[in-house]
Amino acid sequence: MLEAMAMARPVITSDLAAGSDAVLAPPGVAKDRMTGPDVQERRRPELAAALIRLLSAPESDRLAVGRRGRERVVAQFATDEGATPNACPVRGTCTSSGLT
Fold first, then answer.
1. What is the pLDDT of residue 51?
2. What ranges do the domains of the chain cover?
């Protein structure tokens, strides 16, 4: 999930494991700050609805969600000294000055 966020891809998470801790999702934040929808585990209809909403959203909305997710990953894992090995979830996404 963090890898997808680092690549500015919208993600859908669940409360399984740490998924819901990684994203900002309503009702905890306003929709314009959302980094991805969050659904309860094993709720297939809820997951299907989240997928349909995301795939049906205008491209500009999907891009904005992805961009905010990337900004969140960069803010959490990049340092002033540059990226650490843990901050480079996908090979090729880091440079000596941090995430690209």
1. 92
2. 2-99
